[in-house]
Each structure stands twice: as structure tokens, then as C-alpha cells.
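for the record, two folds in this file. i put them one after another cuz i was lazy. first one right below, seq on top, C-alpha cells after. the second one comes after a little note so u can tell where it starts
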Amino acid sequence: IIKIMKVKISHSDNRGEIFDIFVNSPKDHCSLITSKIGAVRGNHFHKISTQYTFIISGKFKIYRAKVDENGTIINEIKVDTIGENELIEHQPYEAHTLVSLEDDGKILAFACGKRGGEFYEDDTYRLEKKLNN
């Protein structure tokens, strides 16, 4: 089950605001990803890793569906529009695709499990049937 949560301000003063994205929840990897309007990110799933996507700026359409071990979609594709300060949790076997609706969209992608650097593709399974078609 995918979770979409609005991250609330943890502290605010005359200097600005602090948003605690995770508290007492260490992650194995974090990437900053930028996207131009129409850019498609994802169209994959993970068998072991849980991925989190935090929207820094911009708006995105998110497509998601449960898949089996081979990447075959096993339930309906759900679509939402997400934006600034929203956090999405992608559990294993939840295929996900993001399409940028604005220029200069920025997201932080966090992972629990192998996901970054030389391990980027170790738990990334591309979909033959794209979610956003």
C-alpha cells in the first residue's frame, strides 16, 4: 500500500522553516533528482528496497500499481497529482512512475536497501508495460 503524506513544518521562526522528513528512521541512500516538464522518472519497482520520494518543488503525476515478481501489473493503476512537501512511500512490488508537470521539479529519493551508487540497478526492475501509457 502506497502512502502519500504531507510533511508539516517542525519549526518556524524569522530565519525560515524546518521540515523533518524522517525522525529515527535511517536510510541507506539519498539522491537529488531534477526534472523538466514532461520528464518521466521511474517505471520500475523494487523487490527488496522501500523507496521514499520527497517533493521539494514542482508538481508531478504519480502512477502506481502492485506487480508480481515478473513485473506484471496485478491491480489497477492509480494516479495522483503530488506537489511540494509531500512524501511518498513505495513498498516492495509497488511499481511507480513520476511525470513532471512543471519545469525545474526537484525530488529527493531515499531508499532502505541497495539503491545507490554502484548498487543502483541491483534492486531496480524495469517495467515492460509502462504505467503512464
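(here's the note) second protein begins now
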Amino acid sequence: MKKILLTLVVFVSSISYGQQEIKLDIADALVIRSLEFSYESYITDDSSFGVSALFNLAKQDVKFRYNENVMITPYYRHYFTSDYKWNFFGEGFVGINSGKSESVKNSGIYDKKYTDGALGIAVGTKYVAESGLVIDIYGGLGRNLFGSDSPVLVPRLGLNIGWRF
């Protein structure tokens, strides 16, 4: 019981350290017909952790879409500059993704379901207004590690708009 209480106290104190952000990836919503929500919490002034959840709304047979139907992406960001308004960052992420791939014997039919985990990196920049408005742009790439039916590469692209509180 003491270990659980200690773990809970450490977790809550790390979240209560500083700023937190919630964001929506508007580029995915407008261009690819998917929704990606993100939550980010600062550990220190120059590092943060977060999690993104992507839900693909496009039909499987659309030519321009993410391969993944659902992707949960925990990430860690390190900020390289100390400017409050504009900040450059590097990111390491793990993407747990699932979707459907086209089977060889039934070409044109997406009937092979997969779930895989990707490890990757990304870089980007973030703008924070005094009012709390947050805009970040990032790009990166990950590689799926476990499945044979999943795509080899997983993109990590975004143009997020959100709010810092």
C-alpha cells in the first residue's frame, strides 16, 4: 500500500510541476480526415512528456490516408532553446498502432488486421502566446518492430493548435 501511495504522490507532483497543454491536430482533420488529440505535461522548463491519440475517419480504400486506423503515441520532448514564445524540440516516441492491410490472395480487400509498436524520433517547433494559445509543427518517422502484416514505417506529422493551462 505504501508503494502505491508513494507512486501516486510522485506522479501527481510531476504533473503539478508546471504547464499542461491540450491540442488538436488540424492538418490531419482537414487534409486526411482523421482526428488526433494530444495532452502534454512539462516535467521541467526544458522537457515534457505527452500522449497523442489518432483516430482515422477515412475509408480503407481511400488513396491518401494513414495506414493506421488507431494509434496511441506516448512521447518525450526535450526543448533546445529557452525562448518562451518560440521553442525548438526533439522528440522520442513509441507508437502503438493498429489497422488493416490488404491480403495477397484477396487483392483489393483489406482483411488482415494488425497491431504493432513503433519506435521513432521527430523534430519540431512550438509557439506559445501569452494568452495560452499553443501552435506546434513537427515531423518524424518511426519503425514498426513486431508484426509482419503491418507497414514498416510510421509517420509522425502534425500541425497542432491548442491551449496551455
